[in-house]
Amino acid sequence: MIATTIHLPNKRHLLLRMRFQLLGGLTFAIVLPALIRISFNQQVIWSPNMQVTIFAALVAHTSGYMLYKRIGNFPGVAAAGYILPTFALTYGLVFVTIFFFRFDYSRFQAAASFIQSTLWYFGLSLATRRLDSYRLAIIPGGDVDRLESIPGVSWHRIHSPGAVVEYASGVVADLRADLSDEWERYIADRALSGTPVYHVKQIRESLTGRVEIEHLSENTLGSLNPNQAYLKIKQAIDWSSALFVLIVFSPLLLFVAIAIKLDSPGPALFKQKRMGYGGHPYEVYKFRTMKLSATIGDEKEAAITKPGDARITRLGQFLRRARIDELPQAFNILHGEMSWIGPRPEALVLSKWYEAELPFYRYRHIVRPGITGWAQVNQGHVAAVDDVLEKLHYDFYYIKNFSPWLDVLIVFRTIRTMLTGFGAR
Q1: Residue 270: enclosing H or E segment and its boundaries?
Q2: CA distance linking residue 397 with residue 420, whole number of Å
Q3: Which CATH number does the domain 133-208 belong to among 2.60.450, 3.30.1890, 3.40.50, 2.60.40?
Q4: What mean pLDDT comes out for the span 310-337?
Q5: Which of 42-51, 66-75, 238-247, 398-407 has the highest mean pLDDT?
Q6: Residue 67 to residue 349: CA distance in whole angstroms
Q7: What distance separates the 2 farthest-apart alpha carbons in the chain?
């Protein structure tokens, strides 16, 4: 049976369609509260107060929905968990801007719009939990055997080009394998019918959040080049926010410095040479969390923090768990040496060790190192070479998908990490 007789419908339930979700959300979160107010006073719709609020809510709701959907596309993301923070972010930014420019607006309408936006999408996530099954059909041949071990997907192997797989979200094949003419026709027919066709490496990256590089291939490094325009924008945002943090939180920084001096002898700040942007060493600043007199082994061993490390002070344990020890790195951000978000910089001695052991390790320095990053929120703190190789895969995923959407997701996950202490040592 030839591939043209195969039927792989890609239908989506009404509740899963973007048009229904967004228009329904705008109706429930903006139109409905406005109608309630109009029912008490029909003239209110003509007031500038009401018109400004409706327009602002429209911008905030649409932006929140787009951000929520973009974040939900990243691997390992339970999108429902990001509904509240994404809408709180967009509504907060929009209405803080309105407040800053002293526009009059309806607090009732703004609050009702925000609350009903989150309720609408929480309700949708509950209603579509069983509908949104991600089904992928696998074409045999090449490097596809490991796919079925990836959770969160309903995998279906196609044993012949005449097989039928209903409601597939896409078809996966190793496009570098030596496929038969029948399978190549099948792939072409699926693409022409509108069913997405994914290369095995592409789908593995999108589901695991990792980019595996065993050897150089065509366009490997080219596909990992970060967006240069966003690099400049991000640097400006980093600089201004670092200046804001140092000014606003200067009393906290002073209090922590005094507490460190009282807790154990030695300076409040810890300085260490680390490998930075472009492969250039720089000196990082952190609050000291270890005893000065404690030294172990050689320089490489001393640079590795182990679980339950006896060198960490009592106060240092809290500072590390809450990530407060990282705040002085705002000075590094002002100097242009670091970013808030990026691959975590390693001590110079460790970086040279990893470079000697791991191919392409230096390529992670193509973006500025960060205080937090994709590897940190997914993997936590690691030091062994095998674990660092896995961290490198996360770092390459971040570089390849370098975008404001991924940075926002990392910010949300970092806040969760600070609350739970995940990965702290």
Answers
A1: strand 269-275
A2: 24
A3: 3.40.50
A4: 90
A5: 238-247
A6: 40
A7: 80
In angstroms, the CA 370 to CA 18 distance is 34
Say if residues 387 and 354 touch (Cβ distance below 8 Å).
no
Q: What element of type H or E holds 154? A: strand 154-157
For the chain, give the mean pLDDT. Answer: 83
Mean pLDDT of 67-90: 83
| Tens-digit pLDDT profile for residues 238-249 | 999 999 999 999
CA distance 21 to 3: 35
Q: Which amino acid is at 97?
A: T
* Alpha carbon 69 to chain centroid, angstroms: 13
Distance CA 203, CA 214 (A): 17
Amino acid (1-letter code) at residue 108: F
Residue pLDDT, tens place only, 158-213: 888 877 666 677 889 888 888 888 888 888 887 877 778 888 888 888 888 888 76
- Residue whose tokens read 């936006």: 117
Dihedral sign of CA atoms 269, 290, 350, 230 in order: negative
pTM of the model: 0.79
Model confidence at 6: pLDDT above 60: no
The CA angle 153-178-10, to the nearest 5 degrees, is 35
Band of pLDDT at residue 93, cut at 50, 70 and 90: very high
Q: Taking the CA of residue 245 as centre, how many other CA atoms within 13 Å lie in the half-sphere pointing to its CB?
A: 18
* Residues across the chain: 425
* 137, containing H or E segment: strand 135-138
Query: At a CB cut-off of 8 Å and minimum separation 6, what does 372 contact?
Result: 323, 326, 340, 341, 344, 410, 411, 414, 417
Nearest to 332 by CA among 231, 232, 242: 242
Q: Give domain limits for the chain.
A: 14-127, 133-208, 228-420
Beta-ladder partners of 412: none
The tokens describing 154, both together, are: 């309903």
Per cent of the chain over pLDDT 70 is: 85
Contact at 8 Å (CB) between 289 and 313? yes
Q: How many other CB atoms are found less than 10 A from the CB of residue 216?
A: 10
Task: Determine what percent of the chain falls in helix, strand and coil, rounding each to the nearest 5.
Answer: 60, 10, 35
What residues does 370 pair with on adjacent strands? 339
Using the 8-state DSSP alphabet, how is residue 342 labeled? S
Helix (H/G/I), strand (E/B), else coil: 273: strand
Query: Between these two residues, 189 and 134, which has the higher pLDDT value?
Result: 189
What is the H or E stretch that residue 156 is in? strand 154-157
Is it the case that residue 217 has pLDDT exceeding 60? no
* 101: number of Cβ within 10 Å: 7
